[in-house]
Predict the 3D structure of the following.
Amino acid sequence: MLILSVTALFAQKERWQVRSGNKAYGKGDFQKAELEYRRALDKDSASLRAKYNLANAMYKNQNAEAALQMAGKMLSDSTGIQPSEKDMPAIFHNMGNYSLAQKKWSEAVESYKNSLRINPGDMETKSNLAYAQKMLKNEQDKQNQQNQQNQQNKDNKDNKDQDKKEDKKDNKDNKQDNKDQNQDPKQDQNQNQPPPKITPQAAQQMLQAIQNKENETQDKVKKEKAKLLQSQQKEKNW
């Protein structure tokens, strides 16, 4: 962690609260240091050194999220003193640390890269960048595996649903087949039954009946022809 002294960043006169905060920070009393830096900002809300050191104290007090927000204000606040180019690598480096503490790997990578673009020789920043990139890759690999597992689970569910639909359809078809099978034997039995056997006497009677019917038909035809002939002869005599 990089802590800026009053003389390292600015030439203006040190405020008593900032000096007191730096002393507490150096002794490891980060709660007192945070309190002193806040008091300094109460008197001068635009103080860049107070914001910078307050962010570091917040980070040491396990409040990395607030530290990252404070560091962001230093870059976006146009009303306060703007960081110089030589201060930017340290600010970005610390922002990377704040993001790293929150497991925001992608943001940490970007902050470390921003720091190295200005100060490419900083070995600590390079080491932190490598670690953040490794953790980011692990997270992405884990997410990809989770996505694949979710897709596999979805495919399995879809397959099960499809199998259920097919089983339901098969059961319906089987019921219909069973119904048809239960009905067909009766129909087939009636259709496939051999004709009843006829005795010679019965056969003779049937033939005689057919012959009698044929004779009656012939007699009727003859009578009709005779009537027609008589009618034609009468008309001719006229």
User: Anything to note?
Assistant: The chain has a mean pLDDT of 82. DSSP finds nine helices and no strands in the chain. The first helix runs from residue 6 to 9.
